[in-house]
Amino acid sequence: MTTFVDSINHYLSSNLTQCAYDLSKLLYAQLPSNENRLLFAQCLYRVAKYDECRSHLSALPPSEQSMNLLGLCILATKKYSAGITQMTSFVTSHKNSGLYYLLGEMHFHLGRRNEAIRCFESALTIDSNLISAQLRIIEMGEVLYRNVVARSSDIIPFSYEQFPRRRLFPSEINPQRESENTIDVTAINGYLKSCVSIEKGDIINATTIMKNEVNSIIGSNEGLFLAARISSIEQKPNITVALGRNAARMYPFAMSLYPFYAEALYQLKSWKELHALAMKSGEYRWCYESWIVLGFEALGLNKNSEAVTCFEKALLIKYCVQNELYLANALMKDKQFQDSLKHYRIVIQLNPNNYKGWCGIAHASLELKLYSEALSASSIAIGLSNTIESLTTGVIVSMKMKKYDQSIKWISSLLNLTQSVEIRLRKIVLLDSVGNIQQAIKDIKVLREESMNDVTVRLVYARLLKKTGNIQMALEEYETLKQLFPKYRLALENEIEKMNNGVIGEEVLAFPEWIGY
């Protein structure tokens, strides 16, 4: 029997799961003891026979090992409510950090934020090295974390690629790799503090922590991931793309950066590189990151309903706040505003401090003409984090509701963060809205000189000329635009016809979608 068990453990540690399953099934048939049944259940779990595994576990007397395995089966089969009922009493009486973590995951998947946080905190009280619990708490917007300590632990080594979890059986430990179980305490604590700052939108603090405390992982996949998150919040897609390229070259099978990399390529309209990334990641469709990349490629091809499907599949593979946000954004793009609002609210339910979720609620509410909710959500987003995204959302909403005093305040803060063409155009729109047309004309002329190949800038310039009665100059600008941008020829001719008929049109600077084509 000992030879059988050793062979099964060897197969499991070598990831030869089918061999382990066949041998454990034979062993249990010959010697149906509780120990052999538990080993057989482990093999059933490893070959994804979750219901059969649960059936065998229910026949065993409860133990920490059997309940740990039961929890994993519940998460795999998504039977969270039943799992909570089945496990809560045992977990609270045995004080095992791994079991608290699994119970917390069940509550998290059901959107029970407070219960989930309590479970994760209980797990960390027992073992602060359970980094997966720390990351979940941070993901839900809690700013506290427990320091990882330098001591022996049975936690799988730290890697963002696969969050650490408790080891179930000795057969999961590969003696040749046991030295990898050591962790750089300072770097990991720095990583966790950086994650907290990023969730709060405090990019300056996150960058400082990375420089001072995370030196040893700066060039690692985890360090690149942190940097990509920071550049994404700062809306610097060029930097995010550079980090993504570097990560793809150094860690070809590490996909944690792919979602940010793909989103940055989408923002930059780098369609060829995005397609190449989708082709590469499409080989790993069991990874949620692959579906996110495919989703952004679909958005780039204006296949919005396909993008929604991709993000839904990503969420099925890995349920987390960020994937809920991706899906909500795709639904928004597909003009499914009601469903989009529903998913943005789930984001806020899981993490009330997620400013991106509040921005999404503001945009979706604006489309559904829920103006008071839109204004409230945008104000909350800005109160949580003065980022480009939150402030831009505030400007859009306040201008739509003609609350120009608030718009002026937020546009001033925006211009301190970025001098992008879009934000400068929004300022010009605001100047026109409050009656300062002369300053608007002056600013648009300067911007036109700097951005001669930007169709939106040139069109706003033509419309402002039209609005101020400079009809001949406006006509010349429209004719130039027709030659430079044939894609918009019919729409431009329609505007010229309106102008020739004496109709100036209120679309001159209707923000945010003023171009109308």
What can you tell me about this protein's structure?
With 517 residues, the protein is mostly helical. 70% of the residues lie in helices and 0% in strands. It has a domain at 435-517: Alpha Horseshoe (Serine Threonine Protein Phosphatase 5, Tetratricopeptide repeat), CATH 1.25.40. The chain is elongated and about 95 Å long. Residues 150-183 and 504-517 have low confidence and may be disordered.
Q: Name the structural class.
A: mainly alpha
| Sequence of secondary-structure elements | HHHHHHHHHHHHHHHHHHHHHHHHHHHH
Annotated CATH architecture of the domain at 435-517: Alpha Horseshoe
Spatial separation of the terminal alpha carbons:
75 Å
Cα gyration radius (Å): 28 Å
Average pLDDT over all residues: 80
| CATH level-1 class of the domain at 435-517 | Mainly Alpha
Name the assembly state. Answer: single chain
Main sheet, how many strands, which sense, barrel?
A: none
CATH topology title of the domain at 435-517: Serine Threonine Protein Phosphatase 5, Tetratricopeptide repeat
- Share of β-strand residues: under 5%
Uncertain runs are 150-183, 504-517
Shape: elongated
State the helical fraction. Answer: over 70%
Number of strands: 0
In DSSP terms (H or I, runs of 4 or more residues), the helix count works out at 28
